[in-house]
Amino acid sequence: MKVLLLSHIFPPAIDGGSKVIYKLGQYFESQHHQTLYLSSNCSSTDDFVKKIQQTSAPENQRTIKLPVYTNFRKPLKFLNLFIKNDLLKVFQKGPIFKLIPFIKATIKIIKFKPDLIVAGPLPTTIVLYANFFKFLSKVLANQRASILINSSFHSTDQDFQQQPLIKSLQKADFLWTLTQSETDYFIKNFNIDRENLILAGNGVDSDFLKKSKHLTSEKLKSEILFIGSLASHKRVDLLIKSFSNLTSEKLKSEISLTIAGQKTLFYPQIEKLINSLDSKIKSKINFIFNFPQKDLSKLIDSCDVLVLPSIQESFGLVVIEAWARQKPVICADIPALKELVEKSNGGLLFKTDNQKDLTKKIQFILDNPKKAKELGQSGYEYVKNNYTWEKVGDKICQKILC
Question: How far apart are CA 357 and CA 332, in angstroms?
Answer without folding.
Answer: 10
